[in-house]
Amino acid sequence: MDDDGLVDPSYSIQVKDQTLLYPSGIMKSLSPSFMHRIRIPIEMEVEAEPTVGLPMMASTIPFPPIIVKILDRDERKVLGVDAGDTFEEVGRMVIKPSAARTHCVGRNGEQRVEVYPLLGYLHEEDYVLGDQGSLFASKMPAELDLNRHHVAKWYALDKAAQAPFDTSTGGEEDSWQKRPRVLAAANYSFQANVLGGLTQGQNLAKNGAGITIHQLQTHQSSSFKIDFCLLGLRNLPQTLVDCKLYVSSFWEGGAIELHIGSLLSQNFNFMVEDSCEGWQEKLAQWKPLLRIDDEQTPLHTQDATSTLWTLKLKDLTGLKIQPPVYEVPVIPYLQQDKLKPGRWSLHEMDTEQQFDILVRYEGTQTVEVQKFANGQLEEVRHPGHFNSSKQILRFTLEDTEWSGQVTSFGAAMPLLRVADLKDMARPSKFYSGTWHEEDPFVLLPSLTIQLKNPATGADHGTLTVPLPCRWGWAPVWK
After folding, report:
1. Origin, by domain of life (predicted)?
2. Which of 155, 282, 349, 400 is the most buried (most CB within 10 A)?
């Protein structure tokens, strides 16, 4: 970590004999957002496929661990001459593939083996069994969609620990919010037919061996207009001389510099100057409410009988920073898109009858459904089941059984069949279900503020502030 409390964030990744080093290319921060998609090819011995063209979906041989180091890059100088960069390790994590299924192999099924899933593996799918127990796709799978098949997890940098990424809690549990951590999604695959490819845009990797780094891209993005208002500084050291406030975040072109100068007080307010543009344009809007005394307008031109509150221009405090629009990809695997939990509206197709239910779903096969009556949520929770591979939802409501397929990334049920459990001979009813759309979960950057003397390099304080948002927010690491 640098003297100012920040880092020039970079990282390295090691898998077997392959090592990737990404030098810092983003602003100093304690909560950087890399948003990188990385491919590292490796060679390893696995079970031969039983049929040509069927890629392996789960292996009995565990794949090697992935070692990720978060680094702080510093420029090294010798006698004032640039001598290259040095990298100090801030923390590390190890991603170890875990077994997802145990099954029997052998002539009489006497041997039990564990398999380690690859990208695109579905637990409930039927697979071709290899001689050694590995699982292969029963038919050539469709394109591998990395934006949907990945699974994101939090990995601690202070010790060996991991936690699921949970959108219902804002991304992480309360106990993880102050821990140094990395949000990453990593796994192995034998499929080469990747949806969208892996070569979109510039390859940011500097070394060869087939390693690629590209900016993560998805089918959907969200745009934010983010303004920052700076009002003042408080409890500053009395020895500040010729200081500047540096404000940096996601925008290009470096930090915004605000001249502070030499302070006569420990408290400093950002003031509006007479020469500043913009405040005169607002004067017409303020005129019915107050009178602005800019200390330049002659007194005889002002209405002495006015009862409006008079405000001096020098008392207007604050500056607004208006950076460019921030655009961020909406990553499907950060959404719970197999079945959207939350409020759904069910519409009977033959009548205008409609009512709402609350679906409780946490990514497993178990579902709970509660019914709304007169706008109030009933306490009774009705059981249900969700088949994630076939996208089929089943649940009961009182004396009826509901079943149907979930479509549109988990946000629609176009045809729900309703069977009467008391009278099975009674004709079924049919409903459609629509999810009450909520804002997607996105990753936002942070705002970094530094108070420094540019001449001496003296640092007087650094602050990293996460950007609040009514959408989801989660820093990549702190």
Report:
1. Eukaryota
2. 155
| Phi, then psi, of 105 in degrees rounded to 5 | -135, 180
pLDDT (tens digit per residue) in 152-188: 999 999 889 999 887 656 677 778 888 899 999 999 9
Q: How many angstroms separate the CA atoms of 56 and 63, rounded?
A: 13
| Token pair of 438 as six digits | 């909520």
What is the pLDDT at residue 477? 35
- CA distances 168 to 35, 174, 386, 440, 476, Å, are 22, 12, 18, 12, 18
- Residue ranges and CATH numbers for the domains of the chain are 272-316 (no CATH), 336-435 (2.40.128)
pLDDT score, position 60: 92
| Predicted local distance difference test score (pLDDT) of residue 280 | 53
Would you call 277 exposed, middle or buried from its count of C-beta atoms within 10 A (0-12, 13-18, 19+)? exposed
Neighbours of 104 (CB within 10 A): 12
Cα angle 241-456-85, degrees, rounded to a multiple of 5: 145
Long-range contacts of 100-107, Cβ-Cβ distance < 8 Å, separation of 24 or more: 100/58, 101/58, 101/135, 103/129, 103/133, 105/129, 105/131, 105/132, 105/133
Identify the CA nearest to 451 among candidates 5, 27, 9, 1.
5
Strands (DSSP E) found in 196-296: 212-215, 221-224, 228-230, 232-233, 243-248, 256-261, 268-269, 290-293
pLDDT at 13: 95
Asked if residues 42 and 97 have their Cβ atoms less than 8 Å apart, the reply is: no
Question: Please, are residues 22 and 12 in contact by the beta-carbon 8 Å criterion?
Answer: yes
Low-confidence ranges of the chain (pLDDT < 50): 274-276, 279, 286, 289-290, 299-302, 308, 469-478
Q: pTM value? A: 0.72
Query: Helix or strand or coil: residue 455?
Result: coil
Taking alpha carbons only, the member of 28, 447, 461, 448 closest to residue 260 is 461
Q: Which amino acid is it at 349?
A: M
- What's the chain's Rg over C-alpha atoms? 29
The pairing of beta strand 135-137 with beta strand 127-129: antiparallel
The reported pLDDT for the residue numbered 468 is 55
Query: What's the CA gap between 86 and 74, in Å, rounded?
Result: 5
Give the integer Cα–Cα distance in Å for 91 and 173: 21
3-state DSSP helix/strand/coil % of the chain, to nearest 5: 5, 40, 50
**In one letter, which amino acid is 430?**
F
Instruction: Supply the pLDDT for residue 372.
Output: 92
